[in-house]
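INTERNAL AUDIT FORM
Audit reference: QA-55
Scope: verify that the stored structure record matches its stored sequence.
Auditor: D.O.
Record contents follow.
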Amino acid sequence: MKNKATNAKLVIRNATPADLVEIQRLSEKVYPDIPPYSLDILRGQLNNYPEGQFVAVYDSKIVGYCATIRVSEQVAMAPHTWRQITGGGYGSTHLATGEYLYGMEIFVDPDYRGLRIGERLYSERKKLCRYYRLKGIVFGGRMPMLKKRLKQVGSVEQYVEQVKDRKINDPTTSFQLRQGFEIMGILPDYLPSDKESMGTATHMVWRNPEAPEPEGKSRTNAGRLPESVRVATVQYEQRRIHSFEEFEQIVTYFVDVVSDYRSDFVVFPELFTLQLLSIENEPIPPDKSIDRLTEYTEKIKEMFLRLAIKYNINIIAGSHPTKMKDGSIQNVTFVCLRDGSIHEQPKIHPTPNERYWWNIQGGDNLSVIQTDCGPIGVLICYDCEFPELARHLIDQGANILFVPFCTDERQGYLRVRYSAQARAVENQCYVAMSGNVGNLPRVHNMDIQYAQSCILTPCDFYFARDGIAADTTPNVETVAFADLRLEYIYRARHSGTVMNLKDRRHDLYSVVWHKNKKLRSKE
């Protein structure tokens, strides 16, 4: 252990979004031979169960991390793999009423070993377990000495017995036994990538001596969610304008209106800023028109951020063609939050027309956005027709998906609408759509518009009968509102008529974001 400042303090606390980059760096340091956890996976762990994620902080530096979820007794005690029980590491399998804590992950900075950081993290889990009066803690434990000793002992079972009898010292298993955990059995094929443990894990349990009798009810953390979130969608009419100031007046009007109704979010349509091309009111070749439109990017960001703060509302600012550092153009949504922060979400899948006429290229990052009403996700129009993208956002903890869209006729609109409804059903989440109406005769590919904006829900007893919280009249400029109760999402996912999200077969399939992937546990 390196020399440490004598006045430094070691603190164990819950992880926060601001910690994620440092946690990622620490995972890379602790396990240099495998890719670090992606920020998306870490966001999922934090969003799915904030109370279960801990960091150890020494002298203002994160030196340890511990990830935990809750699962049912049936799931905890049954044979399983790490991928199955953790939802691929995102913690999307967290059950707020689960009787057991499940240890997904724990690691400690090797430069700070000797401070009993691992012991403190395990102790924090036990405090959480006692506070909620849960039955205990379960996890799959690594056996890093197994591969070296297997020939000597003959079998995994014999190895475990000799570790229990203290004839073999396994640095991980022996430590866990000293923390009061018991070995219930062996989990074969728990994590194939763990070569030292030969893919096998010990099935460990700590039983809470303060657990109530079976009839007792444990507390849940569902109360951390806002009781209700008011969402507004703007069905925006495209018509000629004469200046950027006129465009700003129209946008401000709608933000002012939805703010008067105390909305938490407002969403504008995809590419509604193409209205700015009507200022000159002359035909421009498509590629040059889009390039010219990118010149408005900074003014648009500044305008929406100012409106978000002034009117105390989170704005999903439709989408706008934006020039990247490499000179390419992407279709980007700016999410301007009322706390003064701004986020960007590019469209992943440009349509054939966008690629051909406007030379728009697809982005490669898709992450939830943290707001004061919980994590949200954005899928721009065509992206909504790809189920994997919505699932990736839901794995990260999103409860509401916003879909700005731009379609010229009813068939195109219905492709987006039906896909959005499917995303709401299969992910048991809310989906808010916002589209353009009207026309811009002198703007290529925006001459006519069709939209019927709406706010969609899962289809179950907690929600509107037809899965529609709010709807608009087609092709009329208007605003629609809906109060969305996040508690209903929680209920549907864990006790609904069907439980699409909970019933996924993680043993058969998963969504893996290949740009930065990782699948490994270090208990």
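Auditor finding: record pair retrieved intact. Residues 410-427 form the longest helix (18 residues).
Action required: none
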